[in-house]
Structures are given as structure tokens and as C-alpha cells.
Amino acid sequence: MPSPQLPESLAQRAQNPIDLRRVLVDDPGRAARLQVSAAGLTLDLATQRVDGPVLQALTAHAEQQGLIEARRSLFAGARVNVTEDRAAAHMALRAPRDAGFTVDGAEVSGDVHAVLDAMTVFAEAVRSGTWRGHTGEVITDVVNIGIGGSDLGPRMVVTALAGQVAAVRAHFVANVDAIELRDVLAGLDPARTLFVITSKTFTTVETMTNARLARDWLCQRLPDAAVGQHFVAVSTHLDAAAAFGIPGEQCFGFWDWVGGRYSVWSAVGLSAMIALGPQAFADLRAGAWAMDEHFRDAPLADNLPVQMALVAWWNREALGLPTQVVVPYLQRLIHFVPWLQQLEMESNGKGVRRDGTAALSSTPPLWGDVGTNGQHAFFQMLHQGPQAQPVDFIVAAAPVSDDPADVASHRLLLANALAQRSALSFGKSAATVESELTAQGLDAAQRAAMAPHRIFPGNRPSSLLVMPRLDAFHLGALMAAYEHRTFVLSVLWGVLPFDQWGVELGKAIAKTIDRALATGTDGAPLDAATAYWVERFRQTQA
Ligand code: F6P
């Protein structure tokens, strides 16, 4: 059901969207035509239910919604995050030293690169063994303690780019469930372990709880004075880090104009820089900057993040598709979807427009897993569920190495990604099923009973996003492409993408409940449904 958000020019086209089963046959040139490339990535929209005129109308609509001015304000470092009265200038974090990026009228590239330089010196010291633990041992393991944007970005990047042998192994602890920390610490030698406490606010309860547990663990095994050599902090609140006991020279700062989910490019990426090396981190930033420049400068019609966003918006608003699926056919991108979920849903999961009026719609749930694993879990629903779910297939053209085993496995990955895209596009018709069942010797009654279960409707849209290979530069470009896609979608939906008030209420209530669980419900401002379980849980714990 087309949404009322659609302008007239698109509403008419939405009444009769193209049928992939037909156009992919009638118009073979479509595959080469409906492509846009940037920073080494190619986005292929041939299997989306759009054509040239629809994309043109969508592009014109984005322009009418003020995308060009919104993009200009973003890159000018204006206070686009109006409810928190600050800029959202994550692009400044990957801009070259001489870019002269300004935020709120002030040049920030100098400060950004001063922190990057300090991170580089520190990362090199740890990697080379110059930085040693309290007993003089070299550091072999780094544990990043953080959650949300202070975890998902570095965790994803390290997993994506880690080689077979790392100079320093990186571990990540996010959950307040103590078992995650305990499992990580079980395999570690305190004398060789460095903790990176990563929190923009340095107040997040999960992170501070785990940081204290980690400090206790260390101090039970080494003298208290060891904290200085085994803990560093990443935060915008360096005073809070100092109060925790981390010396000022071991605190790496960033700025309030860096949103948590856009922060991996800042000091939040320290554990990644230590694990992967400063050059890989520089390449990651360079790839993102290449995508930034493309997004900033390219006309909307040739703009990769813009076109990604436009088809996503079309799928939601014109075709009424309920969710967005993302499937990277790369095992090393196992953490890509969780990173992307925070990026997209914390940014655009809003029911209110910029002007405070109700948003008619906004971002659909985004989910997925790596291929081919997902094929053996949820692809059944993608192919034969009652509703289509659009899919972003992400592949790398080249294998991770030229080892023959990697080459052969990689060919299978590519074959599967293309096969799933084709199966979603074409499905399997009643006529094909009928002739297959006939060939198997089923009689007419058996065929009639069986056929409905064997038919795939097809005409289910997807995009194909191709990287030349999974390396730091192209991962950076991929991440920045999705960041800008999120921004463009916020403009189309008219929502504010850089705040996240929706996560605050639950945090505040959890504090009250935690107190009640410890001391009882008497006088606690709890609703009856909550108080019931607080008392039940207290009995269990007694
Ligand atoms: O979940 C809410 C949130 O504020 C995210 O936006 C952020 O990435 C995460 O918590 C962690 O916050 P911090 O880095 O301040 O610990």
C-alpha cells in the first residue's frame, strides 16, 4: 500500500511498479545501466523494482525535501543535532590533516590529528613492546570495555580486518552480564593485558560496572599501582576517567560533536588501531573520506549513498515492504549487521519529525547475518514468506588470499550471493513447478496438492554492493556509505538522526529497579507489574 508520504509523481508509479521477472528478461542492458560507483565500491540496482524514470523522480523528490541544503549544513559543521544543540561532524575525523574542517565555525582538523598522533604513538609503543605492563612484560592482549558505539564499531572493524596472526590480540566486552568479561579474562595473563575503557560519557552503567570488575581483577593479581600501566581511557569526559584512576596522559579524548554510533573513527578506534596497526586505521579513515568527498560533491543522481537511500525509501514508502535485510557474504563481516543496526535504528528510529509533528513512517527494522549462514536460517522466509523483504547483498570480488582453498571457497560465496539474488528476482513459476512434478511422476491430484508449496513468487527486490576486496580502505568506504545512507533517509523521513532520547527512559527506570531489587519495593516508584517481579526475584535471591 503506497504511503501518503509519496508525492504525486511517485504515487502514480507506485501503483504499477516494475516487475523484475519481466524487466530482467526484456531489458538485459539494465544490469550495466543501473549502477553507481564510488571509492572503489559498486552499487548494482538492477534487481530493485525501480527504473530510470523512478530513480529520477526519487532524486527530484530528495532535492525537494532539501537534501542538498541538509548535506551542505552537515559538512559545514553546523549544529544539525538540534535537540542536543551540537554538530554531527564525524567526517572531520577522517578528513586529511590539511582539510581545515570546521565545526561550529572553528577549525578542528588540528585537534583531531593531535589525538590521532597521540593514538599512533601509543599504539606503536604497545605493538612494539616499548609500552610494558607493571612487571615489565610486553602487552599481548587488549580488552576494550565499552558498549553501543563504544563497542560495535571497533569490534566490527577488528573482526573484519584481523589477519591470521595479530601482534596484539583485541577482545571486546560490552554486556553488563559479567560472564562476558569473565570469559575474556579467563584466558588472559594480567601482566600482559591492557584495558581500554571506552565511553563517551564515562557514566554508562554497563561500561563502568565492567571497568570496576576489570580493575578488581587486575588489583587482585598485581599491586594497585599497576592500574596506571594497564588501563587507558577513551572519553569526552577526561575528568571522569581521571577520577577512575587513569592518568591524564593515558586518556584519549574526542568531542561532543561525535555521536556514539559514528565514533569508531575517533579515539574510540584505539583498540582497533592497536590490534590492526596505525596504517590499517589510516587506510580505513581514507576509505571513509573518499566516500565522504563523493557524497559531498557528486550529483544526487550519481551519488552512491543517495541512491542506496532512495531505493530503501522507495521499498518502504511505495512498495510497503516491512523490513530491511543486510547480508554480507564475508565471514569477517559477522559483526557488520549489529554495527549497522545501531547506526540506522538509533539514528532514524523516530516517530516524530523535526518540527515535532508525528512522522507517518520512518526506518523499518534492519536485520540480517552473514551469507551463506543466513541461507540456512531465515532465507526460507525471504523466498516464500507472505511479504517480500528487500535485501542488501554485500560481496567482495576478490578472495581474502590467493590460497587455492580461499579462492575456491570464495567462488562458492559469490555463486551463492548471485544465486539468492536471482532466486528472489525470478522465483519459480507455477509452470516450472508443474513440469518438474510431472517429470517426477506425480499424478494430477498429487501435483495440485504439492505445487503451491513449491512455487516461489519472485519479484523480490535486492541490491548488490560490490567491494573489490575486503581491506581497510574499502571497509571504511562501505561504512561511510551506510552512514550517509542513514543521513539521506533521515532527510526523506524528516526525522532528526543524531539524538537518541529513546534509550534514556529505560536506563532511568533500570536504576530505580536495581535499587528496589537490592533493598525492596517499599516506597519505590514502581508500577504493579514491575513490583510483582521485583518481589519474586528478591525471594529467589534470598
Ligand atoms: O545506547 C545509548 C548510547 O548512548 C549510545 O548512543 C552509545 O553509543 C552508547 O550508549 C554508549 O555510550 P557511552 O559511549 O557514553 O558509554
How would you describe this structure to a colleague?
- The chain is α/β, with parallel strands linked by helices.
- The protein is 49% helix and 10% strand.
- The protein has 22 helices and 13 strands.
- The chain has helices at residues 8-15, 20-26, 30-33, 52-64, 67-75, 109-128, 152-161, 178-186, 205-221, 227-230, 238-244, 270-276, 278-297, 304-317, 336-348, 379-384, 404-426, 430-439, 444-454, 472-493, 504-519, 528-541, and strands at residues 35-38, 41-44, 102-103, 106-107, 141-145, 169-173, 193-198, 231-235, 251-253, 324-328, 366-368, 391-396, 462-467.
- A six-stranded mixed sheet has the order 1-2-13-12-10-11, with helices on both faces. Strands 6-5-7-8-9 form a five-stranded parallel sheet, with helices on both faces. A two-stranded antiparallel sheet has the order 3-4.
- It starts with 7 loop residues before the first helix and ends with a helix.
- The model has no long low-confidence stretch (mean pLDDT 96).
Helix proportion of residues, in percent?
Answer: 40-55%
The end-to-end span amounts to: 54 Å
Beta content: 5-15%
- Rg, Cα atoms, Å: 25 Å
Topology, number of strands: 13
In CATH, the topology of the largest domain is named Rossmann fold
Tally of contiguous helical segments: 22
The CATH superfamily label of the largest domain reads Glucose-6-phosphate isomerase like protein, domain 1
Label the CATH architecture of the largest domain: 3-Layer(aba) Sandwich
Globally, the shape reads globular
Order of strands in the sheet with most strands: 1-2-13-12-10-11
> How many structural domains does the protein architecture include?
4
